Amino acid sequence: MPKGKGKRHTPEQIVAILRRAESGETVAAVCRETNISAATFHRWKSQYGGMDLSELQQLRGLRDENARLKRLVADQALHIQVLKEVNGKKW
After folding, report:
1. Which of 10, 62, 65, 72 has its CA 20 to 30 A from that of 55?
2. Taking the complete model, does pTM exceed 0.85, yes or no?
3. How large a percentage of the chain has pLDDT more than 90?
């Protein structure tokens, strides 16, 4: 498998990987079996550590809503800019 931005894990998979290490497996063994680096494991642990599936679903919902609201704000800013240009022209 190529290094870099190859395989992506879902948040559910990440939590499952973190749970394996919490249940007694060594971090090195979990990293080796899942083909991730120790740095990736610790980054995931700081980001997702202590979360359960319901919190993950809530986080995903908030991220989706945030993306939708950002698109809405961008659309509104574009409409405002167009209206300013139309109103600024001399007829």
Report:
1. 72
2. no
3. 56
